[in-house]
Structure formats: C-alpha cells, structure tokens
Amino acid sequence: MRTHTLGEINLTLADPVTQPVRWIGQEELLGQILACWTRVTKSDLPLTPRVVGKPGMGKTTLAQAAAQKLGKPTFIYQCTTDTRPEDLLVTPVLSGAGKISYHASPLVSAMIEGGVAILDEANRMPEKSWASLAPLLDHRRYAESIVAGVRIAAHEDFRCCVTMNDDASTYEVPEYMVSRIQPLIFVDFPDRDEERQVLQYNVDFAPADLLDLTANFLQEAHRHNLDYSTRDGINIMRYALKLNSARGTAIDAAFHQAVKQVLGDDAENFEERAAGLFFPKDVKDLSEFMTSDEDLDDEEDDDDDAEDDDAEDEGKPGDGGKPPPKGKRG
Ligand SMILES: Nc1ncnc2c1ncn2[C@@H]1O[C@H](COP(=O)(O)OP(=O)(O)OP(=O)(O)O)[C@@H](O)[C@H]1O
Ligand SMILES: [Mg+2]
C-alpha cells in the first residue's frame, strides 16, 4: 500500500494499471496525444486532450497506449453519472476505531506520483464534478479536496487525457471545461487492413476466413454509417469460435449466427439499418422503446408507486429486456 502525506493528512494512493495494451494502426492519433503532453520549453504547460469517438472504437486503448509510450504509471478513472467531486479527488473511508482514512482517487494518485490520468467516459459526469477539475486542468494545476481540507498540487510530470463517447447518452460538458480539455482527437473507423489487424491481435487464434468475414462485415457497416464497432467485431468472432469449438458449427454459419445474436436479427441488412428500419421483426409496437410524458412524470414522483413503475418498465431496453439493435450513427 502506497501512501503520501499532505499536511496533517495521510493519503492512501490508488494502484496504477499494469496490463499492457497495444494500439494498432492510426499512428497519427498516438503521436497527437504525445504531442499534447510535450513541454516545448520549461515555461510551457502540457495540454489535456479529449479523445472522442463512437463506443467500442478504441478510445480507452488509445489513451492507455499513449500513457504506456510515455513510460509513466497509468491511472484510469471510470466516470459515471454518479461521480461526485470527492470520488474524483479524495474519499474519506471509515476505518477501525472510528477513525477516518483518506483514499486518493486514481486521478489524485497520478497527480502525486507524476503519472498519467485517463478520465474515461468523462462526459457521463455531472457539472459539479467537472467544476472540481477546473483549476487542475488550467495553468493552476492543483485540485482542492473539500473533504480532506487540502490543496493538492500536480507533480510536474502529471499528464491527463479525457475520453468521451460521441453520443447523446450523457450530460453536456460545460463550456468552461471544454476550453480546458483541448484539443479534440477523433477516433474514426480504421481502414480494412488496420481493422483486420486489430481483430487478429485481439483474437489471435481466429482463422483467416473468419477474420476476412468480420473485417468485411465491419467495413460494409462503416460504409453505411452504422455504428457497429471493432469491439462488436471482436465479440462476434469470439462467439463464432466458441460455437465452432463447442457445437461444431461451421465457421461461416457460426459467423452469421454470432452477428444476429450480438447485433440483432437484421444486422446484415445494411440498407435497412442505415435507413433507420432497424427494429427487430418481432417487435410490432414501437412504443415499447419510447418514453412517454407519463414515464417522465413518474420519475419525478416519490417512491410510493415504485412497484407500479417496476411492473410497467418490465422488458424495456436497459432493464434487461431485448435492447433495440444498433443503427445509424449520430
Ligand atoms: N487500434 C486498435 N488497436 C488495438 N486494439 C483496438 C484498436 N481499436 C480497438 N481495439 C480493441 O477494440 C476493443 C474496444 O476498444 P476500447 O475499449 O478502447 O474502445 P472504447 O472506444 O474505449 O469503447 P467504449 O466507448 O465502450 O469505452 C478493445 O478490445 C481494444 O483492444
Ligand atoms: Mg472506453
């Protein structure tokens, strides 16, 4: 257990991630992150880039690979809609004999040890949490922990990178923060050769015919502007190979079955999906996937009708029901 003393406070530090990653293709993106972290002169400050792209296209892997290239310990903080400022900075924990111990987040641990902090999926965070990062991500390079009552200055080697999904699932990032997480590094779809290499690296026991089928499938989906991701491709291949191994299903048939089960029945009907006709055939009533004004009102109600809400919600996407399949991008 590593600790660090700040005034009266003894902070328990988080552990860096140690699993090595490899970034394949699109070398330019890796170079751009490393450029952001460079200091041109002693008076120059590093930038905190925001890595943006569709889900599952390699944003976290890219940020991690850049940190690894820099040779600094890497700390990842997974942001959520519930992330509070203290989660991002220092959390008080009740330890034995009614004592409070203070745990530094991965971000603060990186600040103290001169590592790289990756704030993953940062656009899920509410504004209050962003606000706690404002002084850290500008020229001041410090954070104030209200719960521990300390100001924490970032080590001069501290570097930060923020990743965000390019979708509408989250809070808007406040403008004053957008100006502190510059520049934008956009992770777009890789070309066919690179995507095949990524698939091969991640599923290194896959035969060539399955790699070709999956790479062609993903490229066709990208051409139709559908948001099927590299991660979807990896899942399809891994499931197809399990069907092949455990059930003797031929690779070709296993691939098509895996596509259906990972992305939905009509996933290979690119034209239909791209036109937005992407609901499963067995769904007759689209209202199942829609939120009504009534639902919104219910959410604001007190808990007394929680049971009713549960019953009404049954089978809705996100509640364990069949999710609507992926469709057109943005
Ligand atoms: N260029 C690449 N090189 C190596 N692996 C990649 C590359 N692109 C994607 N992958 C692989 O694809 C998968 C998804 O990558 P990753 O988790 O980094 O995506 P993400 O954009 O952060 O996804 P999410 O939005 O869900 O957080 C991982 O298994 C990763 O190893
Ligand atoms: Mg990610």
SSE inventory with pairings:
Layout: E1 3-6, E2 9-12, H1 27-37, E3 50-53, H2 59-70, E4 74-78, H3 85-88, E5 90-94, E6 100-104, H4 106-113, E7 116-120, H5 127-133, E8 142-145, E9 150-153, E10 159-165, H6 175-178, E11 184-187, H7 192-202, H8 208-223, H9 230-247, H10 251-263, H11 270-274, H12 293-300, H13 306-313
Parallel strand pairs: 2-6, 3-10, 3-11, 4-7, 7-10
Antiparallel strand pairs: 1-2, 5-6, 8-9
The structure holds adenosine-5'-triphosphate (ATP) and magnesium ion (MG).
How much of the sequence lies in strands comes to 15-25%
Distance between the termini: 44 Å
Task: Give the overall silhouette.
Answer: elongated
Total number of strands: 11
User: How can the largest sheet be summarized?
Assistant: 5 strands, parallel
Class from secondary-structure proportions: alpha/beta
Uncertain residue segments: 299-323
Strand order of the largest sheet: 4-7-10-3-11
Averaged pLDDT: 87
| SS field, number of helical segments | 13
- Give the SSE string: EEHEHEHEEHEHEEEHEHHHHHHH
Rg result = 23 Å
Keywords:
330 residues; alpha/beta; five-stranded parallel beta sheet; 13 helices; 15% strand; elongated; binds adenosine-5'-triphosphate; binds magnesium ion
Describe the fold and architecture.
It contains 13 helices and eleven strands. The protein is an alpha/beta fold and 330 residues long. The strands form three sheets. It has a five-stranded parallel sheet with strand order 4-7-10-3-11. Strands 1-2-6-5 form a four-stranded mixed sheet. Helix 8 packs antiparallel against helix 9 (230-247) and helix 9 (230-247) crosses helix 10 (251-263). The longest helix is centred in the C-terminal third of the chain and has 18 residues, at 230-247. The relative contact order is 0.12. Residues 299-323 have low confidence and may be disordered.
